[in-house]
Write a structure and sequence with these properties.
With about 300 residues, this protein is of the alpha/beta class. The chain folds into 2 domains: about 10-135 and about 290-305, Aspartate/ornithine carbamoyltransferase (Rossmann fold, 3-Layer(aba) Sandwich), CATH 3.40.50.1370; about 140-290, Rossmann fold, CATH 3.40.50.1370. Helices cover about 40% and strands about 15% of the residues. The strands form 2 sheets. A 5-stranded parallel β-sheet has the order 7-6-5-8-9, sandwiched between helices. A 4-stranded parallel β-sheet has the order 2-1-3-4. Helix 2 (about 60-70) links the parallel strand 1 (about 50-55) and strand 2. Helix 5 (about 140-150) packs across helix 11.
Length: about 300
């Protein structure tokens, strides 16, 4: 059996194109399982997984939990809001206490970039990074690419634009790495204040006109404005942002081609996307949610083989 080149999934930067291919092929098999009347397999029956979330999450957390239960793993959920972290306990102490309960794998979301890398050097369990600050969110990028592959046949050679708040987005960075490793062309588009200064060094095209970006691309992955991460104002108002960067169905229909519309969620309807665009035939947003479970099943299953 093929196996991953890594013991942890800390970021897309750390994995190979072959790893991505293996995760996709494994996810294909699990997607078949998810469409059966009995959606469970005993693959991880003897494995205990802790979901350790120091930041709020709905979709990612539910998706991981469902993936774990579909694989028959034992699952414990940890949320920092009602925990000893509030009393000053360190990240390492918190995780070591969880590991003392004989946990095999940790799925962690943390507000500090590099938190998952730090833990991987200090504990024996496998770690899956479910988002670390504004750094990476590898399973989101994998499910995004998997969804493009499902809709368009392959990722290689496709033109993908990531639109919105690139500066504060871990999804953007992971997506750039994942798409480039699979041979796609990548563009970022947004107000100049929401584009990182180093962005061109990543080998992506930069566009500030959303209309031009849509005319260029095969796929548009639209990100929300992350107001909770912004310490200062990066644009005059949400209304003005929508005026220049909001996408509606009328704009999509006026393009002289079909494009695929994506969003990692949660959508701020009426800001970056109108409801008629989010719910249109262009959109594969709900496919992304469905594919998230299969991708996370694949990642957990493959990492468990690494022990």
């Amino acid at each position: 059996m093929q196996e991953l080149s890594v013991r942890h999934l800390l970021g897309i930067k750390d994995i190979t194109p072959q790893d991505i291919q293996l995760i996709f092929e494994t996810a294909d098999n699990f997607k078949d399982v998810l469409n059966r009347p009995i959606k469970k397999v005993p693959s991880l029956r003897d494995i205990t997984i802790a979901n350790v979330f120091f930041e709020n999450s709905t979709r990612t957390r539910l998706s991981f939990e469902l993936a774990e239960k579909r694989l028959s793993a034992d699952v414990i959920n940890f949320s920092s809001s009602g925990s000893s972290v509030k009393k000053g306990e360190t990240l390492l102490d918190t995780v070591n206490n969880i590991l003392a309960m004989k946990v095999d794998m940790i799925v962690m979301r943390h507000s500090s970039p590099g938190a998952a890398h730090f833990l991987s050097k200090h504990i024996p369990a496998n770690i899956v990074n479910a988002g670390d600050g504004t750094h990476e969110h590898p399973t989101q990028a994998l499910l995004d690419s998997f969804s493009i592959r499902e809709r368009l046949g392959e990722v290689a050679g496709k033109k993908v634009v990531i639109i919105g708040d690139i500066l504060h987005s871990r999804v953007a960075l992971s997506n750039i790495f994942a798409l480039q490793k699979q041979g796609a062309e990548v563009m970022v588009c947004g107000p100049i204040t929401l584009l990182p200064k180093y962005i061109k060094e990543l080998g992506v095209q930069v566009e500030t006109n959303v209309r031009k970006a849509l005319e260029w691309c095969d796929v548009a992955n639209v990100l929300r404005i992350q107001l909770e991460r912004q310490q200062m104002k990066y644009f005059p108002s949400l209304r003005e942002y929508t005026l220049y960067y909001g996408i509606d169905k009328k704009m999509l229909d006026s393009l002289n081609k079909e494009i695929v519309l994506m969003h990692p969620g949660p959508i701020n309807r009426g800001v970056e996307l109108s409801s008629d665009a989010a719910d249109s035939h262009h959109s594969i947003i709900l496919n992304q949610v469905e594919n998230g479970v299969a991708i996370r099943m694949a990642v957990l299953y493959l990492l468990a083989q690494k022990g």
